[in-house]
Amino acid sequence: MKSIDLNGVYKKYNKRDACLGKEDPLWALSDVSFSVEKGEVLGIIGPNGAGKSTLMRLISGISFPTRGTIGVTGKVVPLISIEGALQYVLTGNENIFLLLAAFGVKRRDRNKLSAEIAEFSGISDYLDMQITKLSSGMLSRLSFSIAAHVPSEILLIDEVLSVGDQDFQQKCFAKISQFKNEGKSMIFVSHDLNSIGDICGRVVWLDKGRIVMDGPPDGVFRGYLARYGAASKAP
Amino acid sequence: MASVLKRFSKWGDLVFALALINIKHRYKQGYLRIAWAVINPLFTMMVLFLVFSRVAKLPSEGVPYPVFSFVTLVPWSLFAASMGFCVYSLTANYNLITRINFPRATIPLASILATFLDFAIAFMLLVVFLFIFKIKVGFTFFLVIPVILIQLLFMIGLGLALSIFNVYLRDIQSALPLILQAWMLISPVGYSMDMVGDNLKFFYLLNPMAGLLDSYRKILLHDQMPDPYCLGMSFIISVAVFAAGYSFFKKNEKKLADIILL
User: Fold this and answer.
1) Cβ neighbours of B20 in A, within 8 Å
2) CA angle, corner B225, sides to B222 and B226, nearest 5?
3) Which of A15, A42, A68, B217 could disulfide-pair with A8, CB 3.0 to 4.6 Å?
4) Is residue A32 within 8 Å of A25, Cβ to Cβ?
5) Interface residue of A17, A60, A63, A158 to substitute, partner B, most B CBs within 10 Å
6) Where are the alpha helices (DSSP H) in A122-165?
7) Beta partners for residue A202, in sequence order
8) Which of 160-189 (B) contact A at CB < 8 A?
9) CA-CA-CA-CA dihedral for B215, B219, B223, B225, to nearest 10
10) Contact call for residues A229 and A52 (beta carbons, < 8 A)
11) Would you write out chain B's pLDDT as a tens digit for each of its 262 residues?
């Protein structure tokens, strides 16, 4: 069964020229097709501006393709990028409430999940303070903990290594392997081939909005390193 | 209908949470905080009292001018404040919109809900005024509820549309305060609708706030039923604005995340 199915997806952004009013189209994605089976863990690599974030936004239903179709079966949750969605006037607990509500978590599940999130984050003593008083590491912990507890079938994980201190990173990886065992489909996005190679069974290499290679990690990495050489860390 | 209720039970909490942010934003670092909910209409009432009653000596339907104008200023403030919040609600919440996929209409709806807190407080003061000025209040009092609901319908329709307009064109949020100023003058806030000539009445009532404000006066000051022609016009136009605003919002909802960042 397919969790995600992209068919000839194109995404155009119109960068409007403010002075002349001319439209200057930018194709962030061109003819991207691939699918992710249920329980599969797919890695996506590519340099900055390759279209990785656009792709994540399309899959999570925040933005929509200009051409082509995207079929998604199950609830999609982005695991990292929601840190930017935290609201600075609110306390930690209020943020948990808000983001769970924004993910459509039902009221009766919310209290139980809030307790689990507080526990997992390891910063439960700080959650009744306004989050402007929290350190950036604590904010990463908070947002990851929220997203990781939203009931989901598909997870989008962007640069997972940037979360919190070593202690918490280990906790995150443990959580991610737990998701893998539970049979959740996952997409990892990273520049770091090491972390992708560890966890993904298949890798898509994206460049300038097009798929360059799609296959097992070893083959794709070889091609990628041949193109970018020492700029990327070898696995 | 069943699906609407189901959606509401799922996303209603989100509307509440977003309204809470709006209220916290406004009052967190103020000293007078929620007192602004009554200072606002009271201050405008004083200005109107001086200009319309003392200087221009306009009649006020046989009711003391302060309560005559306060009765319309409270619902007018609800309208003006909620439109003021709606207009930049989507642009201000881009950080949620570009990261989480949820029904976007919850954002302007939350802006409207948040102003109902101010409205509830100001309305309580209004009731105190009615007592102080010994206005006879009967069972017609409860007719304000359908009037408020019609106003709500109008506010949702216009608020949804305004929030989208502002995503395309940020000039809207700068122009809105001016529009609302003029709008207040062409609405019977500081003067009685009796002063509008019969030949102009139809055009005057194309502004749904006119019929609504007059209905508040009829119900709360005169213990009368609202004028069916006035309220009927308001109702029809409010339904039309709601339908137009809602479908306009739906049409543009999917493009929001891309456009908001341009």
Assistant:
1) 90, 94, 98
2) 95
3) A68
4) no
5) A63
6) 136-149
7) A42
8) none
9) 60
10) no
11) 677 777 777 899 899 989 988 888 888 777 777 888 889 899 999 999 999 998 988 899 999 999 999 999 999 999 999 999 999 999 999 999 999 999 999 999 999 999 999 999 999 999 999 999 999 888 889 999 999 999 999 999 999 999 999 999 999 999 999 999 999 999 999 999 999 988 999 999 999 999 999 999 999 999 999 999 999 999 999 999 999 999 999 999 988 988 887 6
- Rounded distance between C-alpha atoms, residue B64 and residue A106, angstroms: 51
Which ranges of chain B would DSSP assign to H, the alpha helix? 2-27, 36-48, 65-87, 89-92, 94-97, 106-132, 144-168, 171-185, 198-204, 208-222, 228-253, 256-259
The distance of A218 to chain B (nearest Cα, Å) reads 32
Q: Which run of H or of E encompasses A38?
A: none
What is the side-by-side order of every strand in the sheet holding A154-158?
A: A76-78, A154-158, A185-189, A41-45, A202-207, A210-215
Check: CB of residue B193 under 8 Å from CB of residue B214: yes
Chain B CB within 8 Å of residue A84 CB: yes
Cβ contacts of B101 on chain A, cutoff 8 Å = 60-62, 76
3-state DSSP assignment of residue B83: helix
In A47-201 the beta strands, taken as DSSP E runs, fall at 67-72, 76-78, 154-158, 185-189
What is the distance in angstroms between the Cα of B90 and the nearest Cα belonging to chain A? 14
Residues of A in contact with B255 (CB under 8 A): 64
Provide the pairing of β-strand A67-72 with A2-16. Answer: antiparallel
Q: Taking CB atoms and an 8 Å cutoff, what residues of chain B touch A89?
A: 21, 24-25, 28
Contact A132, A88 (CB under 8 A): yes
Give dist(CA B109, CA B90) in Å, integer.
Answer: 11
**CB B100 to CB A90 under 8 A?**
no
- What was the ipTM of the complex prediction? 0.86
Rounded to whole angstroms, the Cα distance separating A147 from B124 reads 42
Structure pTM?
Answer: 0.90
Distance of CA B69 to the CA centre of its chain: 16
Nearest to B257 by CA among B48, B100, B106: B100
